[in-house]
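Schema walk-through. Below, the input block comes first and the output block second. Nothing else is stored per chain. Lengths vary across the set, and this one has 347 residues.
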Amino acid sequence: MAIEYREWREGDDLALLEIWGDPDTFQAGQFRGALTASSDGADGTPWRRTIVAEDVQDGVGIPVAAGVVYEATLHPERLWSYVEVARDHRRSGIGATLLTMLRREAERSPSGVTRLRAKVQPDTPGAAFAEAFGLSPIQRSRLVIVEPGALKLPVFPAKDDGGRPANDENAGSDVVMDLATGSVELTDVVGRYYTSIHGWDSPGVLSVGQVQKLFLDDLTGAHGAIVLRAEPESAFGAGVAPSRKGRIRAFAVSYAEASQDPAQERAAQDGTSPGAAATDVFVGHDPALEPEDAAAAVRDMLALIAYQHPVMLELDDSMTALRAAVEPLLENGKARLAGAETLIVSD
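--- output ---
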């Protein structure tokens, strides 16, 4: 076996897919899309270096492995990296050589950033490879489905309508509200929350436009938002009808229905379950809240949105308030993992 290394060429993607077959993990499937032509970053595309390993036989090279390293506009403090080797060529040093070459390329990145990061699934060859070459976990992420009625609905005080008798029918109407995804108020709290839970891998300074594009634009699939506010405040003291809304304590942005996991699909086909798909949601809180208040606000929000229908959310270990609400549900069977965990590893 004679292995030669070269730059990525047009058509390599099809040749490699034919050799590789289906991806080993969800993360591998995601990163295969990053394998494309190298770029110096001068044309507005991120700087990227992609290297292909060929098995040369009788003067003919067949692509069997590839690796890529590239800059990220979001989370710019590290470079994304990915290496994949055909199953019948693993444990022969090809992956190690590709990673060494990518690290040398990283030393010449225009930004000067050289640290690498990658996503792997625990207890897989990819995770073992990353560990062997000095990439250790900096974050764990889980997709969780919360079953309907997993949490008791919050009880809101009856609304005092301008001094008239309290009205139970409208209880909570001044603290639980729908909000347009284009709202500047929502955009502000979503951006600050995202930044606060990524201290381990800073996203940098996010503009209003970036937050909209990442989480709230129509192209993201966002089609609704609900917020939980603090009690409304009066500018003229107690006994006078509130003149302004309370600040946002927690939010939930809903997206297109998430795909059913394999267990749901089988149950639906067998007729043993209605097979209802969970709605994908992004749940967070005002990072200025005290930890106990943040946990309470997130718990109440989750109870509201998962009262009648299942919801699916991403749970990172850095989301302490959300973990406080969700992890007990995982323990008592009222929530479940929708797939394998993802580890973000870095050198």
